[in-house]
Amino acid sequence: MIAGDWPLWEVFVRGKRGLNHVHAGSVRAADAEMALRNARDLYTRRNEGVSIWVVEAARITASSPEEKDPFFAPSGDKIYRHPTFYDIPDDVPHI
Amino acid sequence: MSGATEQGAESFERAIERDQRIEPRDWMPDAYRGTMVRQIAQHAHSEIIGMQPEGAWITRAPSLRRKAILLAKVQDEAGHGLYLYSAAETLGADRADLTDKLISGRQKYSSIFNYPTLTFADVGVIGWLVDGAAICNQVPLCRTSYGPYARAMIRICKEESFHQRQGYELLMTMMRGTPEQREMVQDAVDRWWWPSLMMFGPPDAESANTAQSMAWKIKRHTNDELRQRFVDMTVPQAEALGVRLPDPELRWNPERGHHDFGEVDWAEFRRVVGGGGPCNAERIAVRRAAHEEGAWVREAAAAYAAKQAARRDAEQGREGEAA
């Protein structure tokens, strides 16, 4: 690793207890500890977070936008997975 | 055009038409990517260079309160630069390469930062006028078509509101002070008003990139529309403050429902953009020195990270043998 060529880290911030971590952006850092500190200084200057995850961008596996349609197709035709698929008479309570 | 490209081009056009965002791994025209990288990088550089004019006053702020506020504000500018470099990297740009382009003069930053900050009133006027103009430019960018840029702009706009209000409050405080303090404020307004109007870029008739940027929904309003909006917003603020805006042609036009105002000195704008402003050389020299003097820190951090990684690998190797 040459100087100035620090890896890219993606940053995820939990806004408050009870919420998921959400992607906030990225930082450059030499190692994970430094990435955490840089992320704290950059993304939580106004109490935006109670917890931070950092992960090296190169370690992320993502679905490809080109295969978007076939990749997500299996869930497209299964409308019976949704509650609105089922007709229940209006006078049946609590369902 | 290959089948995949054709399909990509179609979904790009459809997304733009439906006001959906373009995301990093989507297909996009090379020219869109190039425009986006150029605009985001230029914006990031402006935030980074923008630390200098006000940073010069941190050690000379008149009170601990003002010093703490100014430190927080300058730190925000650094943060804004980094949000934007992060957005540029999603397009395949490399952060170290962008820094290199800035300090070698191959990429530009906003011409406003090439003017000097002569008195502490300039700190207030920069917050009020320069950040006010930036907000006018940036609020529509929260809906710009490139997703990571739009998201960075949302964060930035929230923080800019603090910048503008601290500047205006600073000026109100000075206007309640001595006659000399009021003169300082007026002098700063006189020097910063016209450069602030230049921040919106050349007039629409001369703006080469506007039409394509509007078609791609990168820009939502033309330079002249935003300039007009800024003037209309600022006039009542100047009245409330008790300062005069240095334009004899500035007056309300009831027929248009807007203020008329004088012509910006575009020759000066071109001179400053072209490198002939009062502080161009100094701004780049300071940025270059900071980068070069920080090289040993970057090298030390990289060496430390490599040593820790090697030590961790060795320990894992020993554990493997023991098992």
UniProtKB/TrEMBL annotation, chain A:
Highest taxon of the lineage: Bacteria
Matching Pfam families: PaaB
NCBIfam families in the cross-refs: PA_CoA_Oxy2
Protein name in the entry: Ring-1,2-phenylacetyl-CoA epoxidase subunit PaaB
UniProtKB/TrEMBL annotation, chain B:
Region annotated Disordered, chain positions: 1-20
UniProt record, GO biological process: phenylacetate catabolic process
Ranges of biased composition (kind: Basic and acidic residues): 11-20
GO molecular function (one): phenylacetyl-CoA 1,2-epoxidase activity
GO cellular component: cytosol
InterPro entries according to UniProt: Aromatic_CoA_ox/epox (IPR052703), Ferritin-like (IPR012347), Ferritin-like_SF (IPR009078), PaaA (IPR011881), PaaA_PaaC (IPR007814)
UniProt xrefs under PANTHER family: 1,2-PHENYLACETYL-COA EPOXIDASE, SUBUNIT A, PHENYLACETIC ACID DEGRADATION PROTEIN PAA
Full protein name: Ring-1,2-phenylacetyl-CoA epoxidase subunit PaaA
